[in-house]
Amino acid sequence: MTSGAPYGHRKVAVAGVALSDCGRVDDATPYALHAQAARRALADSGLDRSAIDGFASAGLGTLAPIEVAEYLGLRPTWVDSTSVGGATWEVLAAHAAEAVAAGHADAVLLVYGSTARADIKAGRRTSNLSFGARGPLQFEVPYGHTLIAKYAMAARRHMHQYGTTLEQLAQVAVQTRANAAANPEAMYRDPITVDDVLGGPVIADPFTMLHCCIRSDGGCAVLLVAEDRVQDLAKPPIWVLGSGTAVSHTTMSQWDDFTVSPAAVSGRQAFARAGVRPDEIDLAELYDAFTYMTLVTLEDLGFCAKGEGGAFVGTGRLLRDGELPVNTDGGGLSACHPGMRGLFLLVEAVRQLRGEAGPDRQVHKADGVLPRLAVASGTGGWFCSSGTVVLGRE
Question: Which segment of 115-124, 202-211, 221-230, 288-297 scores lowest on mean pLDDT?
Fold first, then answer.
């Protein structure tokens, strides 16, 4: 790829990132997790709350993000609540960066929190079979296939078309768990084997339980600022170099190719706008609600050719010390997955670029230096949407 144009009119930096309490959180509301993550991200940045003039949130409140902003005591003059499933936070980050670059805001806070696990445990909510039965979805809901079944159908197509094996898909779960083992904040850290994955209870053929993400509680926050504020930060900035967004379908009958996700579009946009190539990326944080999602996203972002994802993931490449470290915190398969996990991808990417991941799980390049470039790519719905963000340090 050729070098891209500067990102907007002003450079945009990640100023602060943080997690709320995550995993098993039985004594907090989603609002409390939002507030906890927001306070921690502000402390991480070194800025005062008064600096925030932009706010993005989705998934909570009757009038999101107004209700959440009120709870946090914020009166933003730029807001966004675009909700496209798991890709929401990369899409919101792209929107926020564009707003900051254009001068519509100077400091935008993105914050998320969910007690999905605690709510089910306490009987405050139940699992759902579908997202609704109106509009285009009315033609598929009567057949009863769940969200998980839709991903399973796509995985089966990839297996049929390219010879991808269950063992290769299982390797995604095994390597992700290995990364989680060094993360004290991960919900599940015990090692697993390919046989453990294959021998688990079937959820939706070909997925067994360990092919599927965990259910947890948790929240996180990311603060983006204009380059003008960098001198006020407590830590060196991580720059937003480029981003891309794309949507594909909502009904499976309108999905042209089950083996191609919208990351094929958003990734191409993000890399071109950042002026970098996939082979220059040092680590990738990818939405991994299911093992197949990781595999096909790696293909669509250009880390390997279409159909070669199975061979690519089966050689230990995804490990912290592998050729392309992926989901270095343990991902949604092992670390945490409270719902729309995309913002967690950005937090982990920034921590790794800063060198803050800790001695047991910090990624280093072959020459021992810290990683310079990272990509975070979120996927929403059943491969319905995608947002990709390229981050870099100076």
Answer: 115-124
Please report the beta strands in 9-90, taking only residues with DSSP state E, as ranges in sequence order: 12-19, 54-56, 78-80
Cross-strand bridge partners of residue 86:
84
The rounded distance, in Å, linking the Cα atoms of 65 and 71 is 10
Long-range pairs for 67-75: beta carbons < 8 A, 24 or more residues apart: 68/31, 68/34, 68/111, 71/31, 71/34, 71/35, 72/34, 72/35, 72/38, 72/111, 73/49, 74/49, 74/109
Looking at residue 4, the DSSP 8-state letter turns out to be P
Q: What is the pTM of this model?
A: 0.95
- Residue 32 CA to its chain's centroid (Å): 22
The answer for residues whose C-beta is within 8 angstroms of residue 123's C-beta and 6 or more apart is none
Cβ distance 278 to 177 under 8 Å?
no
Antiparallel, parallel or unpaired: β 207-208 and 78-80: unpaired
8 A C-beta contact, residue 227 and residue 8: no
Which whole-number Å values give the CA distances from 334 to 20, 174, 222, 316, in the listed order? 17, 10, 22, 17
Strand partners, 12: 226
Average pLDDT, the chain: 94
